[in-house]
Amino acid sequence: MTQTDAFLAEIADALGADAVNRSDETIARYGENTMPGGDRPPAAVLYPGSAAEVQAIVRAANRHRIALYPIGTGNNIGLGSRSANLAGFVVVDLGRRMNRILDIDDRLGFAVVEPGVSYQMLHDELARRGDRLMVDVTSGPPQGGIIGNALDKGAGYTPYFDHFGSTCGMEVVLGTGEVLRTGDGALDGQDAANWHVSKYSFGPILDGLFAQSNYGIVTRVGIWLMPRPPAIRSFHFTYPDDADLGEIVELCRPLKLSNYVPTLFRVGNDVYLCGSESVSPTYPHAFTDDARRAMRDRHGLGSWTVSGAFYGASDAALEPQIERMRVHFGRSGKARYIPHDEAAAIPALEVAINAFSGHPSVGELGLLKWRPGGGNTWFLPGTPMDGRIANEVQDVCRQIYVQHGIDYMVMNVCGARFARGLHVLAFNRDDPDERRRADACYRQMAEAVARLGIFVGRAPLDYHDLHMGQAMPAFAQACGAIKQALDPNGVIAPGRYGIA
Ligand SMILES: Cc1cc2nc3c(=O)[nH]c(=O)nc-3n(C[C@H](O)[C@H](O)[C@H](O)COP(=O)(O)OP(=O)(O)OC[C@H]3O[C@@H](n4cnc5c(N)ncnc54)[C@H](O)[C@@H]3O)c2cc1C
Protein backbone atom coordinates (compact mmCIF):
# COMPACT_ATOMS: atom_id res chain seq x y z
CA MET A 1 0.00 0.00 0.00
CA THR A 2 1.42 3.42 -0.94
CA GLN A 3 1.36 6.38 1.42
CA THR A 4 -1.42 7.88 -0.71
CA ASP A 5 -3.49 4.67 -0.47
CA ALA A 6 -3.05 4.57 3.32
CA PHE A 7 -3.99 8.27 3.59
CA LEU A 8 -7.11 7.88 1.46
CA ALA A 9 -8.19 4.78 3.38
CA GLU A 10 -7.89 6.74 6.62
CA ILE A 11 -9.95 9.61 5.19
CA ALA A 12 -12.62 7.21 3.89
CA ASP A 13 -12.83 5.71 7.39
CA ALA A 14 -13.08 9.08 9.10
CA LEU A 15 -15.30 11.00 6.62
CA GLY A 16 -17.11 8.17 4.81
CA ALA A 17 -16.36 6.60 1.42
CA ASP A 18 -18.35 9.31 -0.40
CA ALA A 19 -15.79 11.90 0.68
CA VAL A 20 -13.05 10.30 -1.47
CA ASN A 21 -13.12 10.11 -5.26
CA ARG A 22 -10.43 8.45 -7.41
CA SER A 23 -12.46 7.70 -10.54
CA ASP A 24 -10.70 8.25 -13.88
CA GLU A 25 -13.35 10.74 -14.92
CA THR A 26 -12.88 12.82 -11.74
CA ILE A 27 -9.09 12.69 -11.94
CA ALA A 28 -9.22 13.93 -15.54
CA ARG A 29 -11.74 16.69 -14.74
CA TYR A 30 -9.81 18.05 -11.78
CA GLY A 31 -6.53 18.02 -13.74
CA GLU A 32 -7.91 20.10 -16.62
CA ASN A 33 -7.07 23.76 -17.01
CA THR A 34 -6.73 26.28 -19.83
CA MET A 35 -3.06 27.27 -19.38
CA PRO A 36 -0.17 26.51 -21.77
CA GLY A 37 1.64 24.21 -19.29
CA GLY A 38 -0.76 21.26 -19.66
CA ASP A 39 -3.15 19.36 -17.41
CA ARG A 40 -2.16 18.23 -13.91
CA PRO A 41 -4.19 15.22 -12.81
CA PRO A 42 -4.47 14.88 -9.03
CA ALA A 43 -4.06 11.59 -7.11
CA ALA A 44 -7.60 11.90 -5.71
CA VAL A 45 -10.30 14.41 -4.78
CA LEU A 46 -11.72 14.82 -1.25
CA TYR A 47 -15.02 16.44 -0.25
CA PRO A 48 -14.98 17.60 3.39
CA GLY A 49 -18.26 18.83 4.92
CA SER A 50 -17.01 20.94 7.84
CA ALA A 51 -13.98 22.66 9.35
CA ALA A 52 -13.57 19.62 11.64
CA GLU A 53 -13.35 17.36 8.58
CA VAL A 54 -10.81 19.70 6.98
CA GLN A 55 -8.79 19.40 10.20
CA ALA A 56 -8.98 15.61 10.01
CA ILE A 57 -7.70 15.72 6.41
CA VAL A 58 -4.82 18.08 7.24
CA ARG A 59 -3.77 16.04 10.28
CA ALA A 60 -3.80 12.80 8.30
CA ALA A 61 -1.85 14.50 5.49
CA ASN A 62 0.80 15.45 8.07
CA ARG A 63 1.04 11.84 9.26
CA HIS A 64 1.34 10.46 5.72
CA ARG A 65 3.23 13.42 4.20
CA ILE A 66 0.61 14.03 1.50
CA ALA A 67 0.42 17.26 -0.53
CA LEU A 68 -3.10 18.75 -0.51
CA TYR A 69 -4.52 21.37 -2.86
CA PRO A 70 -7.63 23.25 -1.62
CA ILE A 71 -10.15 24.67 -4.06
CA GLY A 72 -13.36 26.58 -3.40
CA THR A 73 -15.45 26.28 -6.53
CA GLY A 74 -12.50 25.74 -8.88
CA ASN A 75 -13.53 28.41 -11.37
CA ASN A 76 -10.21 30.18 -11.52
CA ILE A 77 -10.31 29.95 -15.32
CA GLY A 78 -7.12 31.15 -17.00
CA LEU A 79 -5.21 31.00 -13.72
CA GLY A 80 -5.48 27.30 -12.86
CA SER A 81 -9.16 26.25 -12.81
CA ARG A 82 -9.49 23.23 -10.51
CA SER A 83 -6.00 21.90 -11.10
CA ALA A 84 -3.24 21.86 -8.48
CA ASN A 85 0.14 23.48 -8.97
CA LEU A 86 1.65 20.00 -9.46
CA ALA A 87 0.19 16.71 -10.70
CA GLY A 88 -0.29 14.01 -8.05
CA PHE A 89 -1.50 16.31 -5.23
CA VAL A 90 -4.77 15.44 -3.48
CA VAL A 91 -7.36 18.10 -4.32
CA VAL A 92 -9.55 19.15 -1.40
CA ASP A 93 -12.78 20.35 -3.03
CA LEU A 94 -14.35 22.46 -0.29
CA GLY A 95 -17.13 23.74 -2.50
CA ARG A 96 -18.97 20.45 -3.00
CA ARG A 97 -20.30 20.18 0.59
CA MET A 98 -19.18 23.37 2.38
CA ASN A 99 -21.42 25.72 0.45
CA ARG A 100 -23.60 27.31 3.09
CA ILE A 101 -24.38 30.99 3.56
CA LEU A 102 -24.00 30.97 7.34
CA ASP A 103 -25.40 34.42 8.01
CA ILE A 104 -26.61 37.58 6.32
CA ASP A 105 -26.84 40.69 8.47
CA ASP A 106 -29.11 43.14 6.63
CA ARG A 107 -28.54 45.97 9.11
CA LEU A 108 -24.76 45.81 9.32
CA GLY A 109 -24.34 44.80 5.67
CA PHE A 110 -22.33 41.62 5.71
CA ALA A 111 -22.62 37.92 4.95
CA VAL A 112 -20.70 34.97 6.34
CA VAL A 113 -19.95 32.26 3.81
CA GLU A 114 -18.27 28.90 3.35
CA PRO A 115 -15.83 28.25 0.46
CA GLY A 116 -18.45 26.81 -1.91
CA VAL A 117 -20.66 29.90 -1.91
CA SER A 118 -20.54 31.42 -5.39
CA TYR A 119 -21.36 34.93 -6.56
CA GLN A 120 -24.52 33.59 -8.15
CA MET A 121 -25.64 31.90 -4.91
CA LEU A 122 -25.13 34.97 -2.74
CA HIS A 123 -26.67 37.24 -5.38
CA ASP A 124 -29.75 35.02 -5.61
CA GLU A 125 -30.15 34.80 -1.84
CA LEU A 126 -29.86 38.60 -1.49
CA ALA A 127 -32.48 39.00 -4.24
CA ARG A 128 -34.76 36.54 -2.45
CA ARG A 129 -34.45 38.63 0.71
CA GLY A 130 -35.65 41.78 -1.05
CA ASP A 131 -32.55 43.00 -2.90
CA ARG A 132 -31.61 45.48 -0.20
CA LEU A 133 -27.92 44.54 -0.38
CA MET A 134 -25.65 43.74 -3.32
CA VAL A 135 -22.50 41.68 -3.55
CA ASP A 136 -19.68 42.97 -5.73
CA VAL A 137 -19.25 40.36 -8.50
CA THR A 138 -16.53 39.66 -11.05
CA SER A 139 -17.19 39.83 -14.79
CA GLY A 140 -16.05 36.20 -14.93
CA PRO A 141 -17.82 32.93 -14.13
CA PRO A 142 -20.94 33.43 -11.95
CA GLN A 143 -20.07 30.10 -10.26
CA GLY A 144 -16.74 31.55 -9.06
CA GLY A 145 -16.42 31.39 -5.29
CA ILE A 146 -16.43 34.41 -2.99
CA ILE A 147 -13.68 33.01 -0.76
CA GLY A 148 -11.46 31.59 -3.54
CA ASN A 149 -11.65 34.83 -5.50
CA ALA A 150 -10.90 37.00 -2.46
CA LEU A 151 -7.97 34.79 -1.42
CA ASP A 152 -6.54 35.05 -4.94
CA LYS A 153 -6.89 38.87 -4.67
CA GLY A 154 -9.63 39.00 -7.28
CA ALA A 155 -11.64 42.16 -7.89
CA GLY A 156 -14.86 43.58 -9.23
CA TYR A 157 -16.02 47.04 -10.22
CA THR A 158 -18.31 48.66 -7.61
CA PRO A 159 -17.10 50.65 -4.56
CA TYR A 160 -16.65 47.18 -2.94
CA PHE A 161 -14.39 46.09 -5.82
CA ASP A 162 -11.50 45.01 -3.56
CA HIS A 163 -12.60 41.48 -2.74
CA PHE A 164 -9.88 40.70 -0.23
CA GLY A 165 -10.34 44.17 1.27
CA SER A 166 -14.07 43.48 1.66
CA THR A 167 -13.47 40.36 3.74
CA CYS A 168 -13.59 40.70 7.50
CA GLY A 169 -12.78 37.84 9.85
CA MET A 170 -11.71 34.35 8.79
CA GLU A 171 -11.63 30.85 10.15
CA VAL A 172 -8.60 28.93 8.90
CA VAL A 173 -7.27 25.40 9.34
CA LEU A 174 -3.50 25.87 9.44
CA GLY A 175 -1.00 23.42 7.96
CA THR A 176 -0.53 22.03 11.46
CA GLY A 177 -4.24 21.17 11.68
CA GLU A 178 -4.91 23.90 14.28
CA VAL A 179 -7.93 26.17 13.76
CA LEU A 180 -7.21 29.92 13.78
CA ARG A 181 -9.84 32.66 13.86
CA THR A 182 -8.55 36.04 12.73
CA GLY A 183 -9.45 39.50 14.02
CA ASP A 184 -11.96 39.72 16.86
CA GLY A 185 -12.74 36.05 16.18
CA ALA A 186 -9.58 35.27 18.16
CA LEU A 187 -11.38 36.17 21.40
CA ASP A 188 -11.17 32.90 23.30
CA GLY A 189 -14.17 30.99 24.59
CA GLN A 190 -16.79 33.52 23.39
CA ASP A 191 -18.81 34.28 20.27
CA ALA A 192 -17.05 37.46 19.12
CA ALA A 193 -19.61 40.20 18.47
CA ASN A 194 -17.27 42.09 16.14
CA TRP A 195 -15.69 39.20 14.20
CA HIS A 196 -17.13 40.21 10.83
CA VAL A 197 -17.45 43.96 11.36
CA SER A 198 -14.09 45.08 12.82
CA LYS A 199 -10.91 44.73 10.80
CA TYR A 200 -8.47 46.25 13.25
CA SER A 201 -8.56 44.01 16.29
CA PHE A 202 -5.92 43.34 18.90
CA GLY A 203 -2.50 42.30 17.62
CA PRO A 204 -1.14 41.72 14.10
CA ILE A 205 -3.50 41.53 11.11
CA LEU A 206 -3.08 37.87 10.17
CA ASP A 207 -5.77 37.70 7.44
CA GLY A 208 -3.35 38.82 4.72
CA LEU A 209 -1.21 35.73 5.29
CA PHE A 210 -3.88 33.60 3.64
CA ALA A 211 -4.12 35.56 0.38
CA GLN A 212 -2.05 34.09 -2.48
CA SER A 213 -0.21 31.75 -0.15
CA ASN A 214 -0.32 28.14 1.06
CA TYR A 215 -0.36 28.51 4.84
CA GLY A 216 -3.88 27.31 5.59
CA ILE A 217 -7.29 26.24 4.34
CA VAL A 218 -9.92 28.92 4.89
CA THR A 219 -13.27 27.50 5.99
CA ARG A 220 -15.32 30.64 6.74
CA VAL A 221 -15.15 34.33 5.84
CA GLY A 222 -17.18 37.46 6.54
CA ILE A 223 -17.79 39.57 3.43
CA TRP A 224 -19.09 43.13 3.42
CA LEU A 225 -22.04 44.03 1.21
CA MET A 226 -23.21 47.34 -0.22
CA PRO A 227 -26.78 48.67 0.03
CA ARG A 228 -28.35 48.32 -3.42
CA PRO A 229 -28.96 51.82 -4.82
CA PRO A 230 -32.40 52.58 -6.29
CA ALA A 231 -30.90 53.66 -9.63
CA ILE A 232 -27.72 52.76 -11.53
CA ARG A 233 -26.83 54.66 -14.72
CA SER A 234 -23.73 53.84 -16.72
CA PHE A 235 -21.85 55.95 -19.27
CA HIS A 236 -19.50 54.80 -22.04
CA PHE A 237 -17.12 56.60 -24.40
CA THR A 238 -15.26 55.14 -27.36
CA TYR A 239 -11.89 56.41 -28.55
CA PRO A 240 -10.55 55.73 -32.05
CA ASP A 241 -6.79 55.27 -31.59
CA ASP A 242 -4.58 52.87 -29.63
CA ALA A 243 -2.56 55.78 -28.20
CA ASP A 244 -5.75 57.31 -26.75
CA LEU A 245 -5.27 55.08 -23.70
CA GLY A 246 -2.99 57.75 -22.21
CA GLU A 247 -5.68 60.43 -22.53
CA ILE A 248 -8.33 58.14 -21.01
CA VAL A 249 -6.13 57.34 -18.01
CA GLU A 250 -5.46 61.04 -17.42
CA LEU A 251 -9.22 61.74 -17.55
CA CYS A 252 -10.19 58.87 -15.22
CA ARG A 253 -7.65 59.64 -12.49
CA PRO A 254 -9.18 62.84 -11.06
CA LEU A 255 -12.66 61.33 -11.13
CA LYS A 256 -11.43 58.49 -8.92
CA LEU A 257 -9.09 60.51 -6.69
CA SER A 258 -12.13 62.52 -5.60
CA ASN A 259 -14.41 59.46 -5.84
CA TYR A 260 -16.79 61.55 -7.91
CA VAL A 261 -17.38 58.37 -9.92
CA PRO A 262 -18.09 55.57 -7.44
CA THR A 263 -17.26 52.62 -9.72
CA LEU A 264 -13.91 51.65 -11.14
CA PHE A 265 -13.47 52.39 -14.84
CA ARG A 266 -13.36 49.53 -17.32
CA VAL A 267 -11.13 50.57 -20.21
CA GLY A 268 -11.30 47.71 -22.70
CA ASN A 269 -9.59 47.41 -26.05
CA ASP A 270 -11.39 46.41 -29.22
CA VAL A 271 -10.37 42.74 -29.27
CA TYR A 272 -11.26 42.22 -25.58
CA LEU A 273 -14.72 43.73 -25.97
CA CYS A 274 -15.63 42.31 -29.37
CA GLY A 275 -13.85 39.01 -28.63
CA SER A 276 -16.52 38.12 -26.08
CA GLU A 277 -19.03 38.02 -28.90
CA SER A 278 -17.26 36.43 -31.82
CA VAL A 279 -14.55 34.02 -32.85
CA SER A 280 -11.46 35.38 -34.54
CA PRO A 281 -12.42 35.88 -38.21
CA THR A 282 -8.78 35.62 -39.36
CA TYR A 283 -7.75 32.50 -37.40
CA PRO A 284 -5.33 30.65 -37.85
CA HIS A 285 -3.68 33.95 -38.74
CA ALA A 286 -3.21 36.72 -36.19
CA PHE A 287 -5.64 39.59 -36.29
CA THR A 288 -4.59 42.44 -38.59
CA ASP A 289 -5.12 46.14 -37.84
CA ASP A 290 -7.58 46.30 -40.77
CA ALA A 291 -9.59 43.38 -39.34
CA ARG A 292 -9.55 45.08 -35.96
CA ARG A 293 -10.92 48.31 -37.39
CA ALA A 294 -13.64 46.48 -39.34
CA MET A 295 -14.69 44.52 -36.25
CA ARG A 296 -14.95 47.50 -33.93
CA ASP A 297 -16.89 49.48 -36.54
CA ARG A 298 -19.31 46.57 -36.81
CA HIS A 299 -19.78 46.55 -33.03
CA GLY A 300 -19.93 50.35 -32.70
CA LEU A 301 -16.88 50.41 -30.41
CA GLY A 302 -13.49 52.10 -30.51
CA SER A 303 -9.88 51.06 -30.19
CA TRP A 304 -10.64 51.72 -26.51
CA THR A 305 -13.99 52.02 -24.75
CA VAL A 306 -14.21 53.43 -21.23
CA SER A 307 -17.19 52.60 -18.98
CA GLY A 308 -18.25 53.74 -15.51
CA ALA A 309 -21.48 54.27 -13.58
CA PHE A 310 -23.25 56.44 -11.01
CA TYR A 311 -25.57 55.37 -8.21
CA GLY A 312 -28.45 57.46 -6.95
CA ALA A 313 -32.09 57.92 -6.05
CA SER A 314 -33.46 57.86 -9.62
CA ASP A 315 -32.36 57.92 -13.25
CA ALA A 316 -33.37 61.59 -13.47
CA ALA A 317 -31.31 62.48 -10.41
CA LEU A 318 -28.22 61.01 -12.09
CA GLU A 319 -28.61 62.92 -15.39
CA PRO A 320 -26.54 65.98 -14.29
CA GLN A 321 -23.64 63.70 -13.33
CA ILE A 322 -23.80 61.91 -16.68
CA GLU A 323 -23.83 65.32 -18.42
CA ARG A 324 -20.72 66.27 -16.51
CA MET A 325 -19.03 63.09 -17.82
CA ARG A 326 -19.96 64.07 -21.38
CA VAL A 327 -18.17 67.38 -20.93
CA HIS A 328 -15.21 65.78 -19.13
CA PHE A 329 -14.51 62.99 -21.65
CA GLY A 330 -15.63 65.13 -24.61
CA ARG A 331 -12.88 67.70 -24.02
CA SER A 332 -10.45 66.60 -26.76
CA GLY A 333 -13.24 65.94 -29.26
CA LYS A 334 -12.11 62.34 -29.84
CA ALA A 335 -14.63 60.54 -27.65
CA ARG A 336 -18.00 59.24 -28.85
CA TYR A 337 -20.65 58.91 -26.13
CA ILE A 338 -22.76 55.76 -25.76
CA PRO A 339 -25.68 56.27 -23.35
CA HIS A 340 -26.78 53.63 -20.84
CA ASP A 341 -29.82 52.36 -22.76
CA GLU A 342 -27.87 52.00 -26.00
CA ALA A 343 -25.00 50.26 -24.16
CA ALA A 344 -27.40 47.79 -22.58
CA ALA A 345 -28.06 46.44 -26.10
CA ILE A 346 -24.32 45.98 -26.87
CA PRO A 347 -23.31 42.66 -25.23
CA ALA A 348 -19.75 43.74 -24.32
CA LEU A 349 -21.06 46.86 -22.55
CA GLU A 350 -23.93 44.98 -20.98
CA VAL A 351 -21.22 42.98 -19.16
CA ALA A 352 -19.96 46.27 -17.70
CA ILE A 353 -23.47 47.34 -16.63
CA ASN A 354 -24.02 43.97 -14.95
CA ALA A 355 -20.70 44.25 -13.13
CA PHE A 356 -21.50 47.78 -11.91
CA SER A 357 -24.91 46.49 -10.76
CA GLY A 358 -23.73 43.44 -8.81
CA HIS A 359 -25.33 41.00 -11.26
CA PRO A 360 -23.24 37.94 -12.21
CA SER A 361 -23.26 37.33 -15.98
CA VAL A 362 -21.74 34.95 -18.49
CA GLY A 363 -21.18 37.35 -21.43
CA GLU A 364 -17.42 37.68 -21.00
CA LEU A 365 -16.86 33.92 -21.03
CA GLY A 366 -17.16 34.22 -24.82
CA LEU A 367 -13.49 35.26 -24.71
CA LEU A 368 -12.63 31.60 -24.16
CA LYS A 369 -13.83 30.88 -27.70
CA TRP A 370 -11.86 33.57 -29.54
CA ARG A 371 -9.59 30.83 -30.85
CA PRO A 372 -10.44 27.12 -31.06
CA GLY A 373 -8.96 24.76 -28.47
CA GLY A 374 -9.98 26.85 -25.43
CA GLY A 375 -6.46 27.94 -24.39
CA ASN A 376 -6.68 30.95 -22.11
CA THR A 377 -4.32 32.48 -19.61
CA TRP A 378 -4.03 35.92 -18.04
CA PHE A 379 -1.06 38.26 -17.56
CA LEU A 380 -1.94 40.74 -14.80
CA PRO A 381 0.51 43.62 -14.38
CA GLY A 382 -0.54 46.96 -12.95
CA THR A 383 0.48 50.51 -13.76
CA PRO A 384 0.28 53.80 -11.90
CA MET A 385 -2.56 55.99 -13.20
CA ASP A 386 -0.23 57.92 -15.46
CA GLY A 387 -1.12 58.17 -19.16
CA ARG A 388 2.48 58.16 -20.35
CA ILE A 389 3.30 54.97 -18.44
CA ALA A 390 0.03 53.32 -19.55
CA ASN A 391 0.96 53.93 -23.19
CA GLU A 392 4.55 52.79 -22.63
CA VAL A 393 3.38 49.46 -21.16
CA GLN A 394 0.76 49.14 -23.90
CA ASP A 395 3.46 49.54 -26.59
CA VAL A 396 5.74 46.97 -24.96
CA CYS A 397 3.02 44.35 -24.49
CA ARG A 398 1.35 44.94 -27.86
CA GLN A 399 4.65 44.37 -29.66
CA ILE A 400 5.32 41.14 -27.75
CA TYR A 401 1.83 39.81 -28.56
CA VAL A 402 2.39 40.57 -32.25
CA GLN A 403 5.83 38.96 -32.20
CA HIS A 404 4.29 35.69 -30.97
CA GLY A 405 1.24 35.78 -33.26
CA ILE A 406 -1.25 36.26 -30.39
CA ASP A 407 -4.05 38.86 -30.59
CA TYR A 408 -3.63 41.78 -28.13
CA MET A 409 -6.62 41.61 -25.78
CA VAL A 410 -6.70 43.75 -22.65
CA MET A 411 -9.04 45.33 -20.10
CA ASN A 412 -7.52 48.06 -17.93
CA VAL A 413 -9.41 48.41 -14.67
CA CYS A 414 -8.69 51.94 -13.48
CA GLY A 415 -8.87 53.27 -9.93
CA ALA A 416 -7.49 56.45 -8.40
CA ARG A 417 -3.78 55.74 -8.38
CA PHE A 418 -3.45 52.36 -10.03
CA ALA A 419 -4.81 50.35 -12.98
CA ARG A 420 -4.73 46.58 -13.33
CA GLY A 421 -4.16 45.48 -16.94
CA LEU A 422 -6.08 42.24 -17.52
CA HIS A 423 -4.15 40.82 -20.49
CA VAL A 424 -5.82 37.76 -21.99
CA LEU A 425 -3.73 35.29 -23.98
CA ALA A 426 -6.26 33.33 -26.05
CA PHE A 427 -4.66 30.44 -27.93
CA ASN A 428 -5.39 27.03 -29.40
CA ARG A 429 -4.43 24.63 -26.63
CA ASP A 430 -4.63 21.70 -29.06
CA ASP A 431 -1.83 23.18 -31.15
CA PRO A 432 1.61 22.62 -29.54
CA ASP A 433 3.13 25.52 -31.45
CA GLU A 434 0.46 27.97 -30.21
CA ARG A 435 0.89 26.72 -26.66
CA ARG A 436 4.62 27.30 -26.93
CA ARG A 437 4.06 30.79 -28.33
CA ALA A 438 1.52 31.71 -25.63
CA ASP A 439 3.97 30.56 -22.96
CA ALA A 440 6.88 32.46 -24.55
CA CYS A 441 4.68 35.57 -24.90
CA TYR A 442 3.77 35.50 -21.20
CA ARG A 443 7.37 35.02 -20.07
CA GLN A 444 8.71 37.75 -22.34
CA MET A 445 6.10 40.24 -21.11
CA ALA A 446 6.83 39.38 -17.48
CA GLU A 447 10.49 40.17 -18.03
CA ALA A 448 9.86 43.25 -20.16
CA VAL A 449 7.49 44.98 -17.76
CA ALA A 450 9.69 44.08 -14.79
CA ARG A 451 12.43 46.11 -16.48
CA LEU A 452 9.99 49.06 -16.30
CA GLY A 453 9.55 48.41 -12.56
CA ILE A 454 6.20 46.69 -12.97
CA PHE A 455 5.16 43.49 -11.17
CA VAL A 456 2.03 41.32 -11.44
CA GLY A 457 -0.73 41.23 -8.82
CA ARG A 458 -1.96 37.70 -9.48
CA ALA A 459 -0.65 34.94 -11.70
CA PRO A 460 -1.55 31.67 -13.43
CA LEU A 461 -0.18 28.58 -11.64
CA ASP A 462 2.24 27.99 -14.54
CA TYR A 463 4.14 31.15 -13.61
CA HIS A 464 4.27 31.25 -9.80
CA ASP A 465 7.93 30.19 -9.72
CA LEU A 466 8.83 32.70 -12.42
CA HIS A 467 7.34 35.58 -10.42
CA MET A 468 8.73 34.47 -7.05
CA GLY A 469 12.10 34.45 -8.84
CA GLN A 470 11.51 38.13 -9.68
CA ALA A 471 11.02 39.02 -5.99
CA MET A 472 13.89 40.08 -3.73
CA PRO A 473 15.50 37.14 -1.81
CA ALA A 474 14.33 38.52 1.54
CA PHE A 475 10.70 38.32 0.38
CA ALA A 476 11.03 34.67 -0.67
CA GLN A 477 12.87 33.86 2.60
CA ALA A 478 10.20 35.51 4.76
CA CYS A 479 7.45 33.60 2.89
CA GLY A 480 9.39 30.35 3.41
CA ALA A 481 9.90 31.05 7.13
CA ILE A 482 6.16 31.63 7.63
CA LYS A 483 5.45 28.40 5.73
CA GLN A 484 7.80 26.55 8.06
CA ALA A 485 6.03 27.97 11.11
CA LEU A 486 2.43 27.35 10.00
CA ASP A 487 2.86 24.22 7.85
CA PRO A 488 6.15 22.59 8.88
CA ASN A 489 5.57 19.40 6.86
CA GLY A 490 4.54 21.38 3.80
CA VAL A 491 1.22 19.59 3.27
CA ILE A 492 -0.82 22.52 1.89
CA ALA A 493 -0.13 23.23 -1.79
CA PRO A 494 3.68 23.16 -1.52
CA GLY A 495 5.15 25.45 -4.18
CA ARG A 496 1.92 27.41 -4.74
CA TYR A 497 2.76 31.08 -5.26
CA GLY A 498 6.40 29.96 -5.28
CA ILE A 499 6.36 29.23 -1.54
CA ALA A 500 8.03 25.91 -0.81
C1 LIG B 1 -13.73 35.77 -18.96
C2 LIG B 1 -13.23 35.81 -17.55
C3 LIG B 1 -13.42 36.94 -16.80
C4 LIG B 1 -12.93 37.01 -15.48
N1 LIG B 1 -13.16 38.14 -14.78
C5 LIG B 1 -12.67 38.24 -13.52
C6 LIG B 1 -12.89 39.45 -12.78
O1 LIG B 1 -13.57 40.38 -13.20
N2 LIG B 1 -12.33 39.52 -11.54
C7 LIG B 1 -11.62 38.48 -11.01
O2 LIG B 1 -11.16 38.59 -9.88
N3 LIG B 1 -11.42 37.35 -11.69
C8 LIG B 1 -11.93 37.19 -12.93
N4 LIG B 1 -11.72 36.03 -13.62
C9 LIG B 1 -10.91 34.96 -13.02
C10 LIG B 1 -11.63 33.83 -12.26
O3 LIG B 1 -12.48 33.12 -13.06
C11 LIG B 1 -12.32 34.26 -10.98
O4 LIG B 1 -11.46 35.02 -10.20
C12 LIG B 1 -12.92 33.12 -10.16
O5 LIG B 1 -13.99 33.64 -9.44
C13 LIG B 1 -11.96 32.48 -9.16
O6 LIG B 1 -12.31 31.14 -9.03
P1 LIG B 1 -12.91 30.52 -7.69
O7 LIG B 1 -13.50 31.57 -6.90
O8 LIG B 1 -13.76 29.41 -8.09
O9 LIG B 1 -11.59 30.10 -6.96
P2 LIG B 1 -10.90 28.70 -6.74
O10 LIG B 1 -10.42 28.13 -8.03
O11 LIG B 1 -11.76 27.85 -5.90
O12 LIG B 1 -9.66 29.20 -5.90
C14 LIG B 1 -8.79 30.19 -6.35
C15 LIG B 1 -7.44 29.94 -5.67
O13 LIG B 1 -7.55 30.14 -4.26
C16 LIG B 1 -7.19 28.97 -3.52
N5 LIG B 1 -8.27 28.67 -2.59
C17 LIG B 1 -9.58 28.58 -2.90
N6 LIG B 1 -10.32 28.36 -1.82
C18 LIG B 1 -9.46 28.28 -0.78
C19 LIG B 1 -9.62 28.08 0.61
N7 LIG B 1 -10.83 27.95 1.12
N8 LIG B 1 -8.54 28.06 1.39
C20 LIG B 1 -7.30 28.23 0.87
N9 LIG B 1 -7.08 28.44 -0.45
C21 LIG B 1 -8.14 28.47 -1.26
C22 LIG B 1 -7.06 27.84 -4.53
O14 LIG B 1 -5.96 27.03 -4.23
C23 LIG B 1 -6.95 28.52 -5.88
O15 LIG B 1 -5.63 28.60 -6.32
C24 LIG B 1 -12.22 35.92 -14.92
C25 LIG B 1 -12.05 34.76 -15.69
C26 LIG B 1 -12.55 34.69 -16.98
C27 LIG B 1 -12.34 33.44 -17.76
Stretches with pLDDT under 50, minimum 5 residues:
none
Overall average pLDDT = 97
Termini Cα gap: 27 Å
Helix content: 25-40%
Quick gist of this model?
The chain is 34% helix and 19% strand.
Describe this structure in words.
The protein is of the alpha+beta class. It folds into three domains: 3-96 and 489-498, Uridine Diphospho-n-acetylenolpyruvylglucosamine Reductase, domain 2 (2-Layer Sandwich), CATH 3.30.43; 101-227, Uridine Diphospho-n-acetylenolpyruvylglucosamine Reductase, domain 3 (2-Layer Sandwich), CATH 3.30.465.10; 231-459, FAD-linked oxidases, C-terminal domain (Vanillyl-alcohol Oxidase, Chain A, domain 3, 3-Layer(aba) Sandwich). Helices cover 34% and strands 19% of the residues. It has helices spanning 3-15, 24-31, 51-64, 119-128, 146-151, 245-257, 270-275, 289-299, 315-330, 340-343, 347-356, 387-403, 432-451, 464-470, 473-486; strands at residues 20-21, 44-46, 68-71, 90-93, 101-105, 110-113, 133-134, 167-174, 179-181, 216-224, 226-227, 231-239, 265-269, 304-312, 336-339, 375-379, 382-384, 410-414, 418-427. The strands form four sheets. Strands 12, 13, 14, 15, 16, 17, 18 and 19 form an eight-stranded antiparallel β-sheet that branches. A five-stranded antiparallel β-sheet has the order 5-6-10-8-9. A hairpin with a 4-residue loop joins β8 and β9 (179-181). The model has no long low-confidence stretch (mean pLDDT 97). The protein binds flavin-adenine dinucleotide. Flavin-adenine dinucleotide binds next to β3, α5 and β10.
